[in-house]
Write a structure and sequence with these properties.
The protein is mainly beta. The chain has five helices and 26 strands.
Length: 342
């Protein structure tokens, strides 16, 4: 006796769901341990953010003594591209006699970097000195803003990206209470005074797009310019702020992340690379239950779904993953080199 059509349908569905396509999408893993290392000059560390010129120059990296360095290839190495006024005025900034943690309030600490391709200008988010800019030839960077138009000063300027179509700059002030040197207090005290801001290239004003944010960090303008992705170090999430369209002004969750994010960068496929400074700690974690792999970054697709993960040796942390011509350039606020995964 034959089975009824409905019974056949149930059997077919059951069999299909036993096959691999019905399982969760496979996440690609890229091990960064076999990449190249580009050592930074002696005495400096922490290439927190990386940027490339319109013609592929670089990478450019902000480092611990307040400068932005440029990589000129193996024959040239690292050279000074940009610096702030204090770097030349205060001898302590160039003497290399004190830890950068003790001098960065005076000498500055460049974090987020991005070029505006049309003008060749490099925009710099300096944690202490504010939003800055330097021309295509480099040199001394000028301070564009140290406070928003509402009069509230910046305390911890951090992530940054440029809308290449308009020249507007989107950046974060991670806290209006704590400066960078007290960043652990932001997490310990669940500080939620951070802001997402916009520097208008035409009016030169700075507006607050969203306030009351918990530790906003990296920023990336979407490929179509419709929204801005913002990484929140705590609580390990990525949100997006809609710039235009029916959702303009809305701030919505894009992804829960497996670690504490730093910078966010567009990838070459319409999604985003998110660097992880540390893996998320489980409340029930024990030494025996420690993860077999050490995550330092993830790639999200345009909808916030994780499609790739980066792993590294224990002790390695990343603050930036910048994709360039199919290669991954890796920055870290703690390490003495820039990584390259070809």
């Amino acid at each position: 006796m034959g089975l009824k059509p409905a019974t056949w349908l149930l059997l077919v569905v059951g069999l299909v769901c036993l096959l691999p396509p019905c399982t969760a999408a496979q996440i690609k893993t890229t091990d960064t341990r076999w990449g190249f290392h580009l050592p930074l000059p002696s005495g400096v560390t922490g290439a927190e953010s990386l940027a490339f010129g319109a013609k592929g120059q670089g990478p450019y990296a902000g480092v611990s003594d307040g400068r932005v360095l440029k990589w000129g290839g193996s024959a040239v190495g690292w050279t000074t591209f940009a610096y702030n006024a204090n770097y030349r005025k205060i001898p302590l900034c160039t003497a290399n006699v004190a830890p950068s943690e003790e001098t960065e309030t005076m000498c500055g600490r460049p974090l987020g970097l991005q070029f505006h391709a049309k003008t060749g200008d490099l925009y710099i988010a300096d944690a202490y000195l504010g939003l800055m800019r330097v021309g295509p030839a480099g040199g001394e960077a000028e301070v564009l803003a140290t406070a928003a138009d509402d009069g509230v000063p910046f305390h911890f300027v951090n992530g940054l990206d440029v809308d290449q179509a308009t020249g507007d700059v989107y950046f974060t002030d991670s806290s209006t209470t704590y400066p960078r040197r007290f960043n652990t207090e932001i997490m310990m005290n669940a500080d939620a005074t951070g802001r997402l801001l916009k520097y208008d290239a035409r009016t030169k004003g700075v507006t607050v797009l969203k306030s009351g944010l918990p530790y906003p960090n990296g920023v990336a303008v979407s490929r179509d310019g419709a929204h801005v992705v913002v990484a929140h170090t705590v609580p390990c999430q990525a949100f997006r702020y809609w710039i235009s369209g029916a959702k303009a002004g809305q701030y919505e969750l894009l992804a829960d992340l497996p670690g504490y994010p730093d910078n966010v960068r567009r990838d070459g496929k319409g999604g985003y690379w998110v660097a992880l400074n540390q893996e998320k700690q489980r409340l029930d974690a024990t030494p025996a239950a420690a993860p077999a792999k050490h995550l330092v970054g993830v790639r999200l697709d345009a909808d916030g779904v994780e499609v790739e993960e980066l792993t590294a040796a224990k002790g390695v942390t990343l603050s930036d993953v910048a994709e360039r011509k199919g290669q991954l350039w890796l920055g870290s606020v703690e390490l003495e080199y820039v990584g390259l995964v070809a």
